[in-house]
Amino acid sequence: MKNGKKFGFRLGLMALTFSLVLGACSSNGGSSSGNATATSSGSSGNGPVTLTVWGSPSLSLPNNENLSTPEEIEKNQDIYAYIQAEMEKKFPGIKIEYVNKGWADELRQNLMVSVMAGNPPDVSFGEEFIPEFAKMHALSEVPEEYTKDLVPGPMAAAKFDGKNYGVSGMTGIFALMYNKDVMKKAGLDPNAPPKTWNEWLEMSRKITEAGKGEYYGSVVQTTGLGGTFRIAPFMRQLGGDLTTPDWQQVTFDTPENAKALAFLKELSKTAPSGSTALNDEGALYNMVHHGKAAFGVAGPWHISWSATENCDCGFVPLPVPDGGKRANVIVGNTIWFVLKQSKNQEAGMEYLRIIASQGYQEKYALASGRMPSNKLAGSNAELIKAIPQLAVYAEIVENEEAGPLPVYAKNGPKVWEAWHKAQESVLVGDKPIEASLAEAQKTAEDLLK
Predict the structure, then answer these.
(1) What proportion of the chain, given as a percentage, has pLDDT over 90?
(2) Could you write out the DSSP letters of every residue in 226-256?
(3) Digit-coded pLDDT (tens) for 103-126
(4) CATH number of the domain residue 99 falls in
(5) Which residues are registered as beta bridge partners of 216?
(6) Beta strands of 100-200 (E only): which ranges?
(7) How buried is 204 (Cβ within 10 angstroms: 0-12 exposed, 13-18 middle, 19+ buried)?
(8) Taking the complete model, does pTM exceed 0.85, yes or no?
(9) Pfam families annotated for this entry (predicted)?
Protein backbone atom coordinates (compact mmCIF):
# COMPACT_ATOMS: atom_id res chain seq x y z
CA MET A 1 0.00 0.00 0.00
CA LYS A 2 1.41 3.35 -1.02
CA ASN A 3 2.68 5.32 1.97
CA GLY A 4 1.48 2.46 4.20
CA LYS A 5 4.22 2.89 6.81
CA LYS A 6 3.62 6.60 7.22
CA PHE A 7 -0.12 6.07 7.39
CA GLY A 8 0.24 3.34 10.01
CA PHE A 9 2.42 5.58 12.19
CA ARG A 10 0.03 8.53 11.94
CA LEU A 11 -2.97 6.36 12.69
CA GLY A 12 -1.34 4.74 15.70
CA LEU A 13 -0.28 8.14 17.08
CA MET A 14 -3.76 9.56 16.59
CA ALA A 15 -5.35 6.53 18.23
CA LEU A 16 -3.14 6.89 21.30
CA THR A 17 -3.79 10.63 21.61
CA PHE A 18 -7.51 10.17 21.06
CA SER A 19 -7.71 7.47 23.74
CA LEU A 20 -6.12 9.86 26.24
CA VAL A 21 -8.44 12.70 25.25
CA LEU A 22 -11.58 10.58 25.56
CA GLY A 23 -10.35 9.08 28.80
CA ALA A 24 -10.12 12.57 30.26
CA CYS A 25 -13.59 13.42 28.92
CA SER A 26 -15.16 10.31 30.43
CA SER A 27 -13.76 11.20 33.84
CA ASN A 28 -15.80 14.42 33.61
CA GLY A 29 -19.07 12.57 33.42
CA GLY A 30 -19.30 11.79 29.69
CA SER A 31 -21.85 9.08 28.85
CA SER A 32 -20.52 5.76 27.58
CA SER A 33 -23.80 4.30 26.34
CA GLY A 34 -26.15 4.88 23.45
CA ASN A 35 -28.96 4.42 25.99
CA ALA A 36 -28.18 7.86 27.38
CA THR A 37 -30.76 10.51 26.56
CA ALA A 38 -28.71 13.09 24.70
CA THR A 39 -29.97 16.16 22.89
CA SER A 40 -31.50 15.51 19.48
CA SER A 41 -32.01 19.08 18.42
CA GLY A 42 -28.82 19.21 16.34
CA SER A 43 -27.44 22.53 15.26
CA SER A 44 -30.84 24.15 14.84
CA GLY A 45 -31.65 24.64 18.54
CA ASN A 46 -35.23 23.53 19.12
CA GLY A 47 -35.91 23.04 15.42
CA PRO A 48 -35.82 19.79 13.41
CA VAL A 49 -32.85 17.44 13.84
CA THR A 50 -30.06 17.44 11.29
CA LEU A 51 -28.40 14.00 11.27
CA THR A 52 -25.07 13.59 9.46
CA VAL A 53 -24.48 10.10 8.08
CA TRP A 54 -21.25 8.93 6.47
CA GLY A 55 -22.31 6.17 4.11
CA SER A 56 -25.03 5.02 1.76
CA PRO A 57 -27.85 2.80 3.08
CA SER A 58 -28.96 1.83 -0.43
CA LEU A 59 -27.61 1.18 -3.89
CA SER A 60 -26.03 4.62 -3.98
CA LEU A 61 -26.14 8.04 -2.38
CA PRO A 62 -29.35 10.12 -2.68
CA ASN A 63 -28.08 11.75 -5.89
CA ASN A 64 -28.18 8.28 -7.57
CA GLU A 65 -24.39 8.30 -7.90
CA ASN A 66 -23.16 5.49 -10.21
CA LEU A 67 -26.70 4.44 -11.15
CA SER A 68 -27.80 4.37 -14.78
CA THR A 69 -31.18 2.70 -15.30
CA PRO A 70 -34.59 4.09 -14.27
CA GLU A 71 -35.25 0.87 -12.31
CA GLU A 72 -32.06 1.27 -10.25
CA ILE A 73 -32.83 4.91 -9.54
CA GLU A 74 -36.40 4.11 -8.47
CA LYS A 75 -35.24 1.38 -6.08
CA ASN A 76 -32.58 3.67 -4.70
CA GLN A 77 -34.99 6.49 -3.99
CA ASP A 78 -37.54 4.11 -2.46
CA ILE A 79 -35.03 3.00 0.19
CA TYR A 80 -34.15 6.57 1.15
CA ALA A 81 -37.83 7.47 1.26
CA TYR A 82 -38.48 4.49 3.57
CA ILE A 83 -35.77 5.53 6.02
CA GLN A 84 -36.90 9.15 5.94
CA ALA A 85 -40.52 8.19 6.62
CA GLU A 86 -39.54 5.91 9.51
CA MET A 87 -37.34 8.60 11.05
CA GLU A 88 -40.11 11.20 10.67
CA LYS A 89 -42.35 9.13 12.96
CA LYS A 90 -40.12 10.02 15.90
CA PHE A 91 -38.35 13.13 14.62
CA PRO A 92 -40.74 15.20 12.48
CA GLY A 93 -38.96 17.31 9.88
CA ILE A 94 -35.61 15.55 10.36
CA LYS A 95 -32.96 16.32 7.76
CA ILE A 96 -30.49 13.52 6.99
CA GLU A 97 -27.26 14.57 5.31
CA TYR A 98 -25.50 11.65 3.59
CA VAL A 99 -21.79 12.10 2.90
CA ASN A 100 -19.43 9.84 0.94
CA LYS A 101 -16.18 9.47 2.91
CA GLY A 102 -14.89 6.37 1.17
CA TRP A 103 -14.49 2.83 2.48
CA ALA A 104 -11.92 0.65 4.27
CA ASP A 105 -8.63 2.49 5.03
CA GLU A 106 -9.84 5.79 3.55
CA LEU A 107 -12.98 5.79 5.70
CA ARG A 108 -11.04 4.69 8.76
CA GLN A 109 -8.57 7.54 8.40
CA ASN A 110 -11.34 10.10 7.80
CA LEU A 111 -13.16 8.93 10.93
CA MET A 112 -10.01 9.07 13.02
CA VAL A 113 -9.27 12.62 11.90
CA SER A 114 -12.87 13.72 12.53
CA VAL A 115 -13.04 12.38 16.08
CA MET A 116 -9.65 13.86 16.88
CA ALA A 117 -10.95 17.23 15.69
CA GLY A 118 -14.15 16.84 17.71
CA ASN A 119 -16.47 17.01 14.70
CA PRO A 120 -17.34 13.44 13.70
CA PRO A 121 -20.56 12.47 11.93
CA ASP A 122 -23.54 11.37 13.99
CA VAL A 123 -23.68 7.98 12.27
CA SER A 124 -21.29 6.10 10.02
CA PHE A 125 -20.74 2.67 8.59
CA GLY A 126 -17.60 0.55 8.36
CA GLU A 127 -16.53 -3.08 8.28
CA GLU A 128 -13.47 -4.39 10.09
CA PHE A 129 -12.44 -1.55 12.42
CA ILE A 130 -15.41 -1.22 14.80
CA PRO A 131 -13.75 -2.97 17.81
CA GLU A 132 -10.72 -0.69 17.40
CA PHE A 133 -12.87 2.46 17.67
CA ALA A 134 -14.95 0.96 20.48
CA LYS A 135 -11.79 0.27 22.46
CA MET A 136 -10.92 3.95 22.07
CA HIS A 137 -14.34 4.88 23.56
CA ALA A 138 -15.31 6.55 20.26
CA LEU A 139 -18.59 4.65 19.76
CA SER A 140 -21.86 4.48 21.67
CA GLU A 141 -23.13 1.15 22.96
CA VAL A 142 -26.17 -0.19 21.11
CA PRO A 143 -29.21 -1.52 23.03
CA GLU A 144 -29.56 -5.31 22.92
CA GLU A 145 -33.13 -5.14 21.59
CA TYR A 146 -31.84 -3.54 18.38
CA THR A 147 -29.70 -6.59 17.60
CA LYS A 148 -31.94 -9.49 18.68
CA ASP A 149 -33.01 -10.37 15.12
CA LEU A 150 -29.52 -10.10 13.59
CA VAL A 151 -27.42 -13.16 12.73
CA PRO A 152 -24.62 -13.71 15.31
CA GLY A 153 -21.82 -14.18 12.76
CA PRO A 154 -22.08 -10.72 11.17
CA MET A 155 -22.63 -9.14 14.58
CA ALA A 156 -19.30 -10.49 15.86
CA ALA A 157 -17.65 -7.65 13.95
CA ALA A 158 -19.67 -5.11 15.94
CA LYS A 159 -18.66 -6.36 19.39
CA PHE A 160 -16.01 -5.27 21.82
CA ASP A 161 -15.63 -6.59 25.35
CA GLY A 162 -18.92 -8.47 25.01
CA LYS A 163 -20.95 -5.37 24.10
CA ASN A 164 -22.54 -4.27 20.81
CA TYR A 165 -21.30 -1.05 19.25
CA GLY A 166 -23.14 -1.27 15.95
CA VAL A 167 -25.71 -3.14 13.86
CA SER A 168 -25.10 -5.15 10.70
CA GLY A 169 -27.03 -3.68 7.78
CA MET A 170 -26.06 -6.38 5.31
CA THR A 171 -23.57 -9.18 5.19
CA GLY A 172 -21.89 -11.68 2.94
CA ILE A 173 -19.99 -14.90 2.59
CA PHE A 174 -17.90 -16.32 -0.24
CA ALA A 175 -18.88 -18.82 -2.92
CA LEU A 176 -17.25 -20.00 -6.14
CA MET A 177 -18.52 -18.09 -9.18
CA TYR A 178 -18.11 -19.78 -12.55
CA ASN A 179 -18.73 -18.69 -16.13
CA LYS A 180 -20.76 -21.43 -17.79
CA ASP A 181 -19.87 -20.31 -21.32
CA VAL A 182 -16.13 -20.58 -20.64
CA MET A 183 -16.59 -24.08 -19.23
CA LYS A 184 -18.50 -25.09 -22.38
CA LYS A 185 -15.78 -23.69 -24.65
CA ALA A 186 -13.20 -25.79 -22.82
CA GLY A 187 -15.31 -28.94 -23.22
CA LEU A 188 -16.37 -29.13 -19.55
CA ASP A 189 -19.85 -29.68 -18.18
CA PRO A 190 -21.16 -26.24 -17.10
CA ASN A 191 -23.50 -27.96 -14.65
CA ALA A 192 -20.66 -29.76 -12.86
CA PRO A 193 -18.40 -27.14 -11.26
CA PRO A 194 -15.54 -28.31 -9.00
CA LYS A 195 -16.21 -29.50 -5.45
CA THR A 196 -12.63 -30.12 -4.28
CA TRP A 197 -9.33 -28.25 -4.54
CA ASN A 198 -7.94 -30.96 -6.83
CA GLU A 199 -10.93 -30.76 -9.18
CA TRP A 200 -10.73 -26.96 -9.27
CA LEU A 201 -7.01 -26.94 -10.08
CA GLU A 202 -7.40 -29.68 -12.72
CA MET A 203 -10.31 -27.87 -14.41
CA SER A 204 -8.46 -24.55 -14.31
CA ARG A 205 -5.44 -26.07 -15.98
CA LYS A 206 -7.57 -27.69 -18.70
CA ILE A 207 -9.42 -24.44 -19.37
CA THR A 208 -6.19 -22.43 -19.58
CA GLU A 209 -4.69 -24.95 -21.98
CA ALA A 210 -7.81 -25.00 -24.14
CA GLY A 211 -8.08 -21.20 -24.11
CA LYS A 212 -4.66 -20.67 -25.75
CA GLY A 213 -4.52 -17.10 -24.44
CA GLU A 214 -8.16 -16.29 -25.21
CA TYR A 215 -9.49 -17.42 -21.83
CA TYR A 216 -8.06 -18.85 -18.60
CA GLY A 217 -8.93 -20.99 -15.61
CA SER A 218 -9.21 -18.76 -12.52
CA VAL A 219 -8.72 -15.24 -11.24
CA VAL A 220 -6.94 -15.13 -7.89
CA GLN A 221 -7.14 -11.91 -5.87
CA THR A 222 -3.92 -11.51 -3.93
CA THR A 223 -3.39 -7.87 -2.96
CA GLY A 224 -4.38 -5.97 0.17
CA LEU A 225 -7.40 -6.57 2.33
CA GLY A 226 -9.49 -7.86 -0.57
CA GLY A 227 -6.92 -10.58 -1.14
CA THR A 228 -6.84 -11.49 2.56
CA PHE A 229 -10.61 -11.87 2.66
CA ARG A 230 -10.43 -14.37 -0.22
CA ILE A 231 -7.44 -16.25 1.18
CA ALA A 232 -8.86 -16.68 4.70
CA PRO A 233 -11.55 -19.28 3.83
CA PHE A 234 -8.95 -21.65 2.41
CA MET A 235 -6.72 -21.39 5.47
CA ARG A 236 -9.75 -21.99 7.68
CA GLN A 237 -10.80 -25.03 5.66
CA LEU A 238 -7.57 -26.66 6.83
CA GLY A 239 -7.88 -25.43 10.42
CA GLY A 240 -5.54 -22.46 9.95
CA ASP A 241 -6.22 -18.77 10.51
CA LEU A 242 -4.54 -15.42 11.08
CA THR A 243 -4.87 -15.54 14.87
CA THR A 244 -5.98 -17.76 17.72
CA PRO A 245 -9.78 -17.76 18.23
CA ASP A 246 -9.53 -15.05 20.92
CA TRP A 247 -7.54 -12.79 18.49
CA GLN A 248 -4.75 -12.50 21.06
CA GLN A 249 -1.92 -14.25 19.19
CA VAL A 250 -0.98 -14.16 15.53
CA THR A 251 -0.71 -17.50 13.74
CA PHE A 252 0.65 -16.47 10.35
CA ASP A 253 3.32 -19.15 10.01
CA THR A 254 1.32 -22.36 10.52
CA PRO A 255 1.60 -25.36 8.16
CA GLU A 256 -2.10 -25.01 7.38
CA ASN A 257 -1.68 -21.45 6.17
CA ALA A 258 1.37 -22.44 4.13
CA LYS A 259 -0.58 -25.26 2.47
CA ALA A 260 -3.45 -22.93 1.56
CA LEU A 261 -1.05 -20.41 0.01
CA ALA A 262 0.69 -23.20 -1.90
CA PHE A 263 -2.64 -24.24 -3.43
CA LEU A 264 -3.52 -20.66 -4.37
CA LYS A 265 -0.05 -20.20 -5.86
CA GLU A 266 -0.67 -23.15 -8.18
CA LEU A 267 -4.14 -21.85 -9.00
CA SER A 268 -2.70 -18.42 -9.84
CA LYS A 269 -0.63 -20.04 -12.58
CA THR A 270 -3.90 -20.55 -14.47
CA ALA A 271 -4.86 -16.86 -14.19
CA PRO A 272 -4.77 -14.27 -16.99
CA SER A 273 -1.30 -12.80 -17.35
CA GLY A 274 -0.62 -10.00 -14.86
CA SER A 275 -4.02 -10.31 -13.18
CA THR A 276 -2.73 -11.50 -9.80
CA ALA A 277 -1.13 -8.11 -9.19
CA LEU A 278 -4.30 -6.12 -9.92
CA ASN A 279 -5.60 -3.80 -7.20
CA ASP A 280 -8.78 -3.03 -9.14
CA GLU A 281 -11.38 -5.56 -8.02
CA GLY A 282 -13.76 -4.50 -10.80
CA ALA A 283 -11.19 -5.17 -13.51
CA LEU A 284 -10.27 -8.50 -11.92
CA TYR A 285 -13.75 -9.99 -11.62
CA ASN A 286 -15.01 -8.60 -14.90
CA MET A 287 -12.58 -11.12 -16.41
CA VAL A 288 -14.98 -13.81 -15.21
CA HIS A 289 -18.08 -11.79 -16.14
CA HIS A 290 -16.77 -11.18 -19.67
CA GLY A 291 -15.51 -14.69 -20.37
CA LYS A 292 -11.79 -14.09 -19.91
CA ALA A 293 -11.67 -16.58 -16.99
CA ALA A 294 -13.87 -19.38 -15.71
CA PHE A 295 -13.65 -19.20 -11.92
CA GLY A 296 -13.41 -16.62 -9.14
CA VAL A 297 -14.14 -16.31 -5.41
CA ALA A 298 -17.23 -14.11 -5.15
CA GLY A 299 -19.55 -12.56 -2.60
CA PRO A 300 -23.33 -12.25 -3.04
CA TRP A 301 -22.92 -8.81 -4.64
CA HIS A 302 -21.62 -10.65 -7.70
CA ILE A 303 -25.13 -11.97 -8.36
CA SER A 304 -26.45 -8.62 -9.58
CA TRP A 305 -23.02 -7.50 -10.81
CA SER A 306 -22.58 -10.51 -13.11
CA ALA A 307 -26.17 -10.18 -14.35
CA THR A 308 -25.52 -6.53 -15.25
CA GLU A 309 -22.50 -7.72 -17.26
CA ASN A 310 -24.70 -10.31 -19.03
CA CYS A 311 -22.69 -13.22 -17.65
CA ASP A 312 -24.28 -16.66 -17.49
CA CYS A 313 -22.63 -17.21 -14.12
CA GLY A 314 -23.30 -19.94 -11.57
CA PHE A 315 -22.58 -19.96 -7.84
CA VAL A 316 -21.68 -22.95 -5.64
CA PRO A 317 -19.95 -23.47 -2.26
CA LEU A 318 -16.16 -23.08 -2.27
CA PRO A 319 -14.27 -26.28 -3.13
CA VAL A 320 -12.80 -28.09 -0.12
CA PRO A 321 -9.35 -29.74 0.26
CA ASP A 322 -8.86 -33.42 1.02
CA GLY A 323 -9.09 -33.84 4.76
CA GLY A 324 -10.45 -30.33 5.18
CA LYS A 325 -13.83 -28.93 6.15
CA ARG A 326 -16.19 -26.29 4.86
CA ALA A 327 -15.31 -22.87 6.30
CA ASN A 328 -15.64 -19.24 5.32
CA VAL A 329 -15.26 -15.60 6.34
CA ILE A 330 -17.81 -12.88 6.97
CA VAL A 331 -17.34 -10.28 4.22
CA GLY A 332 -19.13 -7.25 2.82
CA ASN A 333 -20.48 -6.90 6.32
CA THR A 334 -21.62 -3.30 6.69
CA ILE A 335 -21.71 -2.24 10.35
CA TRP A 336 -23.55 0.99 11.25
CA PHE A 337 -22.65 2.82 14.45
CA VAL A 338 -23.23 6.05 16.38
CA LEU A 339 -20.25 8.21 17.30
CA LYS A 340 -20.13 8.99 21.02
CA GLN A 341 -19.31 12.66 20.38
CA SER A 342 -22.55 13.07 18.44
CA LYS A 343 -25.09 15.44 19.97
CA ASN A 344 -27.88 13.47 18.29
CA GLN A 345 -27.62 10.18 20.18
CA GLU A 346 -31.34 9.43 20.26
CA ALA A 347 -31.83 10.13 16.55
CA GLY A 348 -28.66 8.19 15.71
CA MET A 349 -29.85 5.14 17.62
CA GLU A 350 -33.24 5.34 15.91
CA TYR A 351 -31.41 5.32 12.57
CA LEU A 352 -29.57 2.14 13.64
CA ARG A 353 -32.84 0.53 14.73
CA ILE A 354 -34.26 1.11 11.24
CA ILE A 355 -31.13 -0.25 9.51
CA ALA A 356 -31.40 -3.42 11.64
CA SER A 357 -35.11 -3.88 10.94
CA GLN A 358 -36.72 -6.53 8.78
CA GLY A 359 -38.50 -3.89 6.70
CA TYR A 360 -35.36 -2.02 5.66
CA GLN A 361 -33.26 -5.13 5.07
CA GLU A 362 -35.90 -6.77 2.89
CA LYS A 363 -36.11 -3.67 0.73
CA TYR A 364 -32.37 -3.39 0.40
CA ALA A 365 -31.87 -7.08 -0.38
CA LEU A 366 -34.57 -7.10 -3.07
CA ALA A 367 -33.09 -3.98 -4.65
CA SER A 368 -29.44 -5.03 -4.54
CA GLY A 369 -29.21 -8.81 -4.29
CA ARG A 370 -27.16 -8.46 -1.10
CA MET A 371 -27.62 -10.74 1.90
CA PRO A 372 -29.64 -9.37 4.83
CA SER A 373 -28.29 -9.79 8.36
CA ASN A 374 -31.80 -9.74 9.79
CA LYS A 375 -32.90 -13.37 10.23
CA LEU A 376 -36.55 -12.59 9.42
CA ALA A 377 -35.61 -10.79 6.22
CA GLY A 378 -33.23 -13.60 5.24
CA SER A 379 -35.97 -16.23 5.49
CA ASN A 380 -38.34 -14.25 3.25
CA ALA A 381 -39.50 -16.61 0.49
CA GLU A 382 -40.13 -13.64 -1.81
CA LEU A 383 -36.45 -12.72 -1.62
CA ILE A 384 -35.23 -16.19 -2.65
CA LYS A 385 -37.85 -16.34 -5.41
CA ALA A 386 -36.72 -12.98 -6.77
CA ILE A 387 -32.99 -13.82 -6.47
CA PRO A 388 -32.63 -17.64 -6.63
CA GLN A 389 -28.82 -17.54 -6.39
CA LEU A 390 -29.12 -16.20 -2.85
CA ALA A 391 -30.25 -19.69 -1.84
CA VAL A 392 -26.65 -20.86 -2.42
CA TYR A 393 -25.31 -18.21 -0.06
CA ALA A 394 -28.05 -18.94 2.47
CA GLU A 395 -27.02 -22.61 2.46
CA ILE A 396 -23.39 -21.61 2.98
CA VAL A 397 -24.30 -19.42 5.96
CA GLU A 398 -26.30 -22.30 7.41
CA ASN A 399 -23.62 -24.98 7.01
CA GLU A 400 -20.19 -23.34 7.12
CA GLU A 401 -18.31 -22.06 10.13
CA ALA A 402 -17.51 -18.41 9.52
CA GLY A 403 -16.45 -15.29 11.35
CA PRO A 404 -14.97 -11.89 10.56
CA LEU A 405 -11.29 -11.18 10.06
CA PRO A 406 -9.54 -10.53 13.38
CA VAL A 407 -8.94 -7.15 15.00
CA TYR A 408 -5.47 -6.73 16.48
CA ALA A 409 -5.04 -5.33 19.98
CA LYS A 410 -2.47 -2.72 18.89
CA ASN A 411 -0.68 -1.51 15.78
CA GLY A 412 -3.43 -3.00 13.63
CA PRO A 413 -2.54 -1.25 10.34
CA LYS A 414 1.12 -2.29 10.65
CA VAL A 415 0.21 -5.90 11.50
CA TRP A 416 -2.00 -6.04 8.42
CA GLU A 417 0.78 -4.51 6.37
CA ALA A 418 3.08 -7.35 7.45
CA TRP A 419 0.54 -9.98 6.41
CA HIS A 420 -0.27 -8.29 3.09
CA LYS A 421 3.42 -8.12 2.28
CA ALA A 422 3.71 -11.87 2.91
CA GLN A 423 0.69 -12.87 0.84
CA GLU A 424 1.79 -10.71 -2.07
CA SER A 425 5.43 -11.81 -1.97
CA VAL A 426 4.21 -15.41 -2.29
CA LEU A 427 1.27 -15.11 -4.70
CA VAL A 428 2.58 -12.29 -6.90
CA GLY A 429 6.32 -12.79 -6.37
CA ASP A 430 8.44 -15.88 -5.97
CA LYS A 431 9.52 -15.69 -2.33
CA PRO A 432 9.36 -19.06 -0.51
CA ILE A 433 6.15 -19.46 1.46
CA GLU A 434 7.68 -20.55 4.78
CA ALA A 435 10.20 -17.71 4.76
CA SER A 436 7.54 -15.10 3.97
CA LEU A 437 5.22 -16.34 6.72
CA ALA A 438 8.03 -16.56 9.28
CA GLU A 439 9.07 -12.98 8.55
CA ALA A 440 5.48 -11.73 8.84
CA GLN A 441 5.00 -13.69 12.06
CA LYS A 442 8.08 -12.14 13.65
CA THR A 443 7.09 -8.62 12.59
CA ALA A 444 3.54 -9.04 13.90
CA GLU A 445 4.68 -10.49 17.24
CA ASP A 446 7.02 -7.53 17.75
CA LEU A 447 4.23 -5.07 16.93
CA LEU A 448 1.88 -6.70 19.41
CA LYS A 449 4.30 -6.73 22.36
Answers:
(1) 73
(2) HHHHHHHHHHHHTT--SB-TTS-SB-TT-HH
(3) 887 999 999 999 999 999 999 999
(4) 3.40.190.10
(5) 293
(6) 123-126, 159-160, 163-164, 167-170, 175-179
(7) buried
(8) no
(9) SBP_bac_1 (PF01547)
